[in-house]
Design brief:
This protein is an alpha/beta fold and 120 residues long. It has one domain. Helices cover 37% and strands 32% of the residues. It has three helices and six strands; from the N terminus they run βββαβαβαβ. β3, α1 and β4 form a beta-alpha-beta unit. The termini are far apart.
Length: 120
């Protein structure tokens, strides 16, 4: 399976989806001009990953900020991950960033996935 690796910019997050090394991470800032277009490769990659997932998958979100359009796509990603057995979401936030903590808590209530919250 191909590795999906997108370098982060000021407006887009760094994304690494690497099945072989067990790295599944979205980090940085997410405010792309077209969120649907930006995140489509991620959704496509997850669809392919669903065919033969690892026994356990820790999917890491380490976002500093995301806009409203991105939040919809993050929810789409989480919803897609619900179909995979053994997925855990690791939601990182700065210890003084209550907004990002609350965003993770809200996402955790909207999907049937275990969440672990960690500060950095």
């Amino acid at each position: 399976m191909q590795i999906l690796h997108l370098e982060g910019t000021e407006d887009t997050p760094k994304i690494i989806l690497d099945k072989n090394n067990g790295i599944f991470e979205i980090s940085g800032r997410s405010l792309p001009e077209d969120s649907a277009e930006f995140y489509q490769p991620v959704l496509d990659w997850i669809d392919e990953y669903k065919e033969e997932p690892k026994n356990a998958t820790e999917f890491v979100f380490k976002l500093e900020y995301f806009n409203t359009a991105s939040s919809k796509l993050i929810l789409d990603i989480l919803s897609n991950l619900e179909d995979i057995e053994g997925v855990t979401i690791i939601w990182y936030y700065h210890e003084d960033d209550e907004d990002m903590q609350e965003a993770g808590e809200e996402f955790s209530e909207l999907v049937e996935l275990p969440f672990e919250f960690k500060t950095y």
